[in-house]
């Protein structure tokens, strides 16, 4: 059955980081036609109503229809410790993160948190995400089962740690990391809308043997993404140097063990040496920018414009619970603020691109999600651009779509999410 959703429609025809607002398409009175979980057509409302006269219509009025948001780096097990006070990265992991991750030894706990996480993500308009789990296979099972039950396109992997730097209870071995990751990969990768991601937490919590084992697993499954953390804080980089004295730099601790490639997604990548930057560009790796996390934990200012100009694929991410919000709107606002501190004003079209089409490119999903175009999977959201009195009074003065959208980017939250469709089915 064909159905129509009416509203303002925002989509992308090109890379907005390279081409700015000209890359976006805006239909002031538009429509999206859905059929069997996919987008059949996008265009002016009048044209689509004439083409599909029998299709039932959901008229969202002047709400803005967009592809659902894609969160390219999140730790769903940290849902309950979001907004924990007063620490920088290494202390923050030891004080808040690791004790919470230990609780995922209990599958019932994993199941409860996975449900809460998906409730929150969808309420904020996030329809796809790439998550770290914990060392426990049950944490991966809980995440994928919940995603599958809701029909969400989701990616995740078992977080591997085997060094004494990780606490007892959250440590495996090189062999266990390989075996358990492989078993989960074989069970979940490509099942329905799910993908497995090979996930060493980061080089300070893995031995060279474990990195090598996960590098081998990736070589056996090159279509999988590999995600890890890179150059988040200056203290962390010094720590990596002390643990890997032979390494040329932080990226080299991955490169040496087969964990550098075109399907790699590195979180943060704030303090890169010129060699690291050159190698990332050369292999076509991608970067997940986590601006609320970078300011919250005091990590530094990611160079969004510079990375994109160098040809790197970049997507936005909450990094919950190091990040301080589940909202990709708040994440866009933080990305804008961080770029401002580096002297660059990212255009609203670029911020939106980084949270949708650009994020999909980062996760190699650009043929499936992240845009409103014929053939794409029907994951979309409707935005209320006047969701609070403060936003409404500013948007009322807007003279174009970007002026109308920017107050929601800067001040909006889950109250702005007026509708969410996942695989063509309306969730809220
Ligand atoms: Zn992270």
From TrEMBL:
Residues 65-425 form the Amidohydrolase-related domain. Its EC number is 3.5.4.3. Pathway: Purine metabolism; guanine degradation; xanthine from guanine: step 1/1. It catalyses: guanine + H2O + H(+) = xanthine + NH4(+). Binds 1 zinc ion per subunit. Keywords: Hydrolase, Metal-binding, Zinc. Catalyzes the hydrolytic deamination of guanine, producing xanthine and ammonia. Belongs to the metallo-dependent hydrolases superfamily. ATZ/TRZ family. Gene3D superfamilies: Metal-dependent hydrolases, Urease, subunit C, domain 1. One of its GO terms (cellular component) is cytosol. InterPro entries: Amidohydro-rel, Guanine_deaminase, Metal-dep_hydrolase_composite, Metal_Hydrolase, Metallo-dep_hydrolases, MQNX/HUTI_composite_N. This is Guanine deaminase. Transmembrane segments: none annotated. Its cofactor is Zn(2+). GO terms for molecular function: guanine deaminase activity; zinc ion binding. One of its GO terms (biological process) is guanine catabolic process. It comes from Rhodobacter maris. It holds the Pfam family Amidohydro_1. Residues 30-55 form the Aminodeoxyfutalosine deaminase/Imidazolonepropionase-like composite domain.
């Amino acid at each position: 059955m064909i159905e129509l959703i009416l509203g303002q429609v925002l989509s992308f025809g090109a890379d907005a980081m390279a081409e700015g607002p000209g890359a976006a398409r805006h239909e002031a009175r538009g429509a999206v036609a859905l059929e069997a979980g996919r987008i059949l057509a996008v265009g002016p409302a009048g044209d689509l109503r004439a083409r599909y006269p029998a299709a039932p219509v959901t008229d969202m009025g002047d709400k803005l229809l967009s592809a659902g948001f894609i969160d390219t780096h999140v730790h769903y097990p940290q849902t309950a410790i979001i907004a924990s006070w007063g620490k920088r990265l290494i202390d923050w992991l030891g004080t808040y993160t690791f004790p919470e991750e230990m609780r995922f030894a209990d599958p019932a706990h994993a199941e409860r948190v996975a449900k809460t996480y998906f409730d929150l993500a969808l309420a904020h308009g996030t329809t796809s995400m790439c998550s770290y789990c914990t060392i426990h296979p049950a944490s991966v099972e809980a995440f994928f089962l919940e995603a599958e039950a809701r029909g969400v396109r989701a990616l995740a992997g078992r977080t591997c740690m085997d060094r004494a730097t990780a606490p007892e209870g959250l440590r495996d071995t090189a062999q266990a990391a390989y075996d358990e990751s492989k078993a989960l990969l074989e069970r979940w990768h490509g099942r329905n809308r799910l993908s497995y991601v090979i996930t060493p937490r980061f080089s300070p919590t893995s031995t060279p043997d474990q990195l090598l084992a996960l590098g081998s697993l990736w070589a056996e499954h090159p279509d999988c993404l590999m995600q890890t953390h890179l150059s988040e804080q200056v203290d962390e980089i010094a720590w990596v140097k002390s643990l890997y004295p032979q390494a040329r730099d932080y990226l080299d601790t991955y490169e040496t063990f087969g964990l550098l490639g075109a399907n790699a997604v590195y979180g943060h990548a704030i303090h890169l040496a010129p060699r690291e930057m050159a190698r990332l560009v050369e292999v076509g790796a991608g970067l997940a920018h986590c601006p609320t996390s970078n300011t919250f934990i005091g990590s530094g200012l990611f160079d969004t414009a510079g990375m994109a100009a160098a040809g790197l694929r970049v997507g936005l991410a909450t990094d919950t619970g190091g990040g301080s919000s589940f909202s990709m709107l708040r994440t866009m606002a933080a990305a804008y603020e961080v770029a401002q501190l580096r002297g660059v004003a990212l255009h609203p079209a670029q911020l939106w691109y980084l949270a949708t089409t650009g994020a999909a490119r980062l996760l190699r999903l650009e043929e499936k999600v992240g845009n409103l175009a014929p053939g794409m999977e029907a994951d979309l959201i409707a935005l209320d651009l006047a969701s609070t009195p403060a936003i409404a009074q500013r948007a009322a003065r807007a003279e174009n779509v970007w002026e109308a959208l920017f107050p929601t980017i800067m001040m909006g939250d889950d109250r702005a999410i007026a509708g969410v469709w996942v695989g063509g089915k309306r969730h809220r």
